[in-house]
Every structure is written in structure tokens, then in C-alpha cells.
Amino acid sequence: MNTELHIYNTLSRKKELFEPLNPPFVGMYVCGPTAYGDAHLGHARPAITFDLIFRYLQHLGYKVRYIRNITDVGHLVNDADEGEDKIAKKAKSEQLEPMEVVQYYSDRYHKNMEQLNVKKPSIEPRASGHIIEQIEMIKKILDNGFGYEVNGSLYFDVEKYNKKHHYGKLSGRKIEDLVTNTRELEGQDEKRNSYDFALWKKAQPEHIMRWPSPWSDGFPGWHMECSAMGTKYLGEHFDIHGGGMDLLFPHHESEIAQSVAANGIEPVKYWLHNNMITLNGQKMGKSLGNAVSLEKFFTGENDLLEQAYSPMTIRFFILQAHYRSTLDFSNEALQSAEKGLKKLFKTFETLNKLIPSDHSTVNIKKLNEKCYKALNDDFNSPVLIAHLFDAVRIINSINDKKESVTAEDLELLKNMFKIFILDILGLEEESSKDQNDLSESLINTILRIRQNAKENKDYATSDKIREELTKLNIQIKDTKEGAIWSYDN
Questions:
Q1: Does pTM top 0.85 for this prediction?
Q2: Is residue 15 part of a domain?
Q3: Per-residue pLDDT tens for 160-185?
């Protein structure tokens, strides 16, 4: 097993030699999606980042238990312990049960992940399925003196915790700065301090997502779910916890505090965070109104897009930047990624036609070592890709009789391409998915025709289209955001 992997630990702010707590087993927890909307490019980046890490650790021989959760309760609209639950709000607007919303968007997320060739996690727990575990962890926090109750709601006492531990160690913040910078928010006067965060919230009469607890009918705070589920599936202290940089504070910071307060030990050895995707230097996200769903990227139906971009183009685009660096979206960058991806797979064809010689004029073994060195340097995918394009140049030179390789080196070269491009980077040749992509494009086109018919009050045509699609087991649901469809198998 390769023992020279170094990863950047957000907690220590430096690269560290990766040494699992219990080799060959590795526990990895990654914060997954909140199931109230379509996945966009910002969701794709952590999914692909940690898919790369998952794949490489498995390639090195580790047995990885990869947990990626789904948030389906407790994430409030203003992220400040007040307001409506995001999923409940969506359910009300669509006149659905909350879990219908969760199921629908979870299914769409899974479909997008499959399109991006992101491997399924070992376990994908939902917050709503672990209410008991969250309640039990809250009890431990209270018993240890780090929480308090007000009118049936429970809050974490950050100031008291900070007297014994360091709240802010992950993000580099100090509690004095929190006192200065945290504004008093409406409805938070029941907290001792504005920066305290909810462990459990008493549900108001109109709140539709609620569970019984020793304190009130209510729901867990957003941060509690990951602490409870991480402990359940990976233990009180596990190897890797990851997610987007936007989760570093307050979500991951609060996770550390909760786990230390409940269990008395640090929950995670290595914290890994991917950086943002930006548009003209500004973060892409739903709250800023500049997020483009993955579906729109795949169909090209957005004013920001000059064309449709395939799932593999999106994957390759994301992998061309190191996961800790910002990645700026542009059509030019995506079109460049599209060309580069085609070049890689075209070289596969050339590689399979090469004829070995009795001697090598190129050092394939050294090139192979460089590829591993790149990945061992904090999963440096752009450097790996640069080495693979060096291999492309060599392959074309061999094909043009300018260079030569032995049968042994040729086999190593073929193995390199398979391992690094297919197995670790997780790239697939587009032609294998063309038929499915065409079918989806046709259905989306038909739905646009139906929408135009509805807007023109041609309800007979609209109903006829729905009827014919239903015969093909394609179910249509009209929402405020437009028609959505799914296969009814």
C-alpha cells in the first residue's frame, strides 16, 4: 500500500502524511445536498472532488466507508435558527408532503450524479431518519453542561464551551470577533448570545415537520445531523470529513463543538474543503441568483450558456482545477475542457493501434511515477492531467515513428491511461451515453412544445401530449417552475 499520500488538513492548515486511524479501513463523511432544489454546478464540485478522493483511496487498497448525507430537515431559510424549514416551505408552495419534495429532488440529484459518473457512497443517511440519534447526542451535550433550554428550544452555549475548548479552531475565528460581528437577528432574543446555535427547535403550530422529544415537539438544528450520523456510522473519531468551503463556518465549526461537548474527543482527524465555483469572481449559488442547474448545463437552456455541455465535459472542467482553488466559470473554459476531453479519448484509439519495438526511447515508468506523485500531493488532479497530456504527446510521437516503446512499456502506458483516466478521474467516453442524452433532449423538447401550447390556451394539444407521454410511462408534473418528468418503471 502506498504510504506517501499527503493531504491538506484545514484544521492544521498544512499538508500532512495520510495515516488512517485503523488501516486498511478509512472512514470518510461528506456533507451532501439539501433536498429542496435541483443540483447546480456548485453541488457538482464537492461530489466530484470527493469521488476522486474515494476512488484514489480505494485504488491504493484502502477499504473506505464513504458516508454522504442528505439534509431533509432542520435547514432554515435564513440559516440563523429562525424562519421556515427550506423543505417545508417548498412543500407548501407545491402543495406536497415534505418527503415528496425530498424524494423528488433526491432522485434528481442521484440522476445527476450518475450522469457525472460519481460513485454511490457506502451509506447515504437522511437527517429525518436519525432523529433518535440526534436527541441522544443533545442529551449528552446537556448532561455535560454545554447546552441550555429556553421555552422548549435548546441552544449550544458557545461562550461556556470556549472557556474549556476553542470554538473557531477550524475557521480561525475568535469568539471576540463573533461578539463584534454577529448581528442581533429578529427572533433570537431567547438565546444567551446571538452566536449560540440551535440544537433543537420547538415547532410553532404552523411548522409541519416535527418530532416528539423530551423538551418539545420540534426538530433538530441543522448542525446536529452530521455530528449524530458521523458518530453512528464512523465512530466518535474518524479519518476524513469533507465538504464545500462555504460549510467551514458555521456548520463544520459547530459540528466539532457538538462532538467534543458530547463525546469529549475531536471527531475528525483530517478536514478537507473544496473551494467555490465563481462567475466573474462572485460565488455561484442559489442565494445570489446566478446558479445554473446541472440539467440546464446538459441541455444548454440558460442565457449564461452558449451551448449544451455534456456531463463528462463538466466533470473534466472541474477536475482541471485543484479542489482547493477557486474555479471560475466561463463558456471558453468549458469549451476548452470539451476539446481536451475529446483529445484524451481519441488518443485511446491511437494507443490501441501502436506496435511495440525492441527498445524504448521514452521513460514511461518515470511518467507513471509522476502521475502518482501528483495524486499523492493532495490529490492534485490538474498536474495529473498535465502528465496525461504529456503521455498523449508521446503516444502520437510513437504513432508517427518519432519515438518507440517496448511491449512492456506499451502495456504500462495502456495501464496508465485506464487507471488514471477511467478508474481514478472517473471519465467516460461520451458516445456510450449519447442515446440516453438524445432521449432526454427529445422529451425536454416535447415538454417545451406542451408549455407553449398551454401558454396559448391550446389545452387540447397540451392534454394530448401528456396522454401520449403517459402511455410511454413518462409521468408529467406541473409546478410553478415548469413541467418536470420522470420514468414510471
A1: yes
A2: no
A3: 999 999 999 999 998 877 765 544 44
